[in-house]
TrEMBL record:
SMART domains registered for this protein in UniProt: LysM
GO BP annotation list: cell wall organization; peptidoglycan-protein cross-linking; regulation of cell shape
Organism lineage: Bacteria, Bacillati, Bacillota, Bacilli, Bacillales
GO MF annotation: an example: peptidoglycan L,D-transpeptidase activity
Protein name as it appears in the record: L,D-transpeptidase family protein
Origin species: Metabacillus arenae
Active site as annotated: H123, C139
């Protein structure tokens, strides 16, 4: 997968977002000076497929509290979700699923799908009454059966678009 450097990013922040080491990124990109990244510079993220080769995409509407799964541009399924509170809003932007952890425990329910933004993910919940509300610390919560179904369909590398509405 290729990540294009955005303003303010460092190799350390990119490595954290994609859950890989700085050394791995340096080696994969043959970086001569890892402290001199430029906006728009392509960085290869080893171990993740090119999202354009994946037929699935996820669109999340924070306002509608809805996650929509697409396959080849066609709606496959829509799920109800919970999103972040006003002070801990769900991040808006384009991300990819970088890894997953079944049964992470605690409030994360039956599955955790890490997004390419450190500390954020799509996960189940131990509080199903929270679905449909703005109550999380920024993550996207789903019913456990829904996140298990979603995770059985989409591979790592799947694009996730989070929009305000």
């Amino acid at each position: 997968m290729i990540h294009y450097v955005r303003a303010g990013e460092t190799l350390t922040s990119i490595s954290m977002d994609y859950r890989t080491s700085v050394q791995t990124l340096i080696a994969a990109n043959r970086l001569q000076n890892p402290n001199q990244l430029r906006v728009g510079q392509p960085i290869t993220i080893p171990g993740l497929p090119d999202p354009q080769t994946i037929p699935y995409q996820i669109a999340i509407s924070v306002g509608k509290k809805q996650l929509t799964l697409f396959r080849n541009g066609q709606v496959m399924k829509t799920y109800p979700i919970a999103t972040g509170k006003i002070l801990t809003a769900t991040p808006i932007g384009e991300f990819v699923i970088v890894n997953r952890e079944p049964n992470p425990g605690g409030p994360f329910g039956a599955m955790w799908l890490s997004l390419s933004k450190i500390h954020y993910g799509i996960h189940g919940t131990n509080d199903p009454s929270s679905i449909g509300k703005a109550v999380s610390l920024g993550c996207v919560r789903m019913y456990n059966q829904d996140v298990l179904e979603l995770s059985s369909i989409v591979p790592n590398g799947t694009r996730v678009y989070i929009r305000p509405n």
